[in-house]
Amino acid sequence: LGEVYELFCSDPRHGWSKRTEGSYATTRRWVLDVFGAQTPIAAVTREQCREFLNLLLRLPAHADRRYRGLSIRQAVRAAEGKKVRLIGAANVNAHLIRFGATMNWALNEGYIERNPARSLQV
Questions:
Q1: Cβ proximity of 25 and 102 under 8 Å
Q2: What is the average per-residue pLDDT within 28-36?
Q3: pTM for the complete prediction?
Q4: How far is CA 80 from CA 8, 73, 117, 120, in A?
Q5: What mean pLDDT do residues 32-57 have?
Q6: What is the DSSP string of the chain?
Q7: Cys-Cys link to 49, which of 55, 58, 72, 117 (CB 3.0-4.6 A)?
Q8: Buried (b) or exposed (e) across 111-122, using 16+ Cβ within 10 A?
Q9: Would the CA dihedral through 73, 63, 60, 23 be positive or negative?
């Protein structure tokens, strides 16, 4: 998964702005944290994608800054029971769209036969 993500992010056909590049980098960090960089991309299941969605729904806003150095699961646990603003549905969907785009790219490039994240959203 990590290798395919690297290939996807470095594909020159994207022509992303710096802001878009940063957004994809954040999503990539969360995805690799949840699924594992060494996980074969073809082994990613729909159930795991739903687990990713559920983690995002419980993720504190600005977790990458507020909980710097923590994994997504650790950040969720650190915020549980506290009055912490969570990321909104639009941000959850944005992460899912970027993850889905990566998986679509992998599908089109022949790394996987189906996209387990297809149409997954809040």
A1: no
A2: 96
A3: 0.92
A4: 34, 11, 26, 24
A5: 97
A6: -HHHHHHHHT-TTS---HHHHHHHHHHHHHHHHHH-TTS-GGG--HHHHHHHHHHHHTPBTTHHHHTTT--HHHHHHHHTTS--PBPPHHHHHHHHHHHHHHHHHHHHTTS-SS-TTTT---
A7: 117
A8: bbeebbbeebee
A9: negative
pLDDT of residue 41: 97
Q: How far is CA 26 from CA 56, 63, 67, 71, in A?
A: 12, 10, 14, 12
Measured distance CA(26)–CA(41) in Å, rounded: 19
Average pLDDT for residues 32-48, to the nearest whole number?
97
pLDDT for residue 109? 96
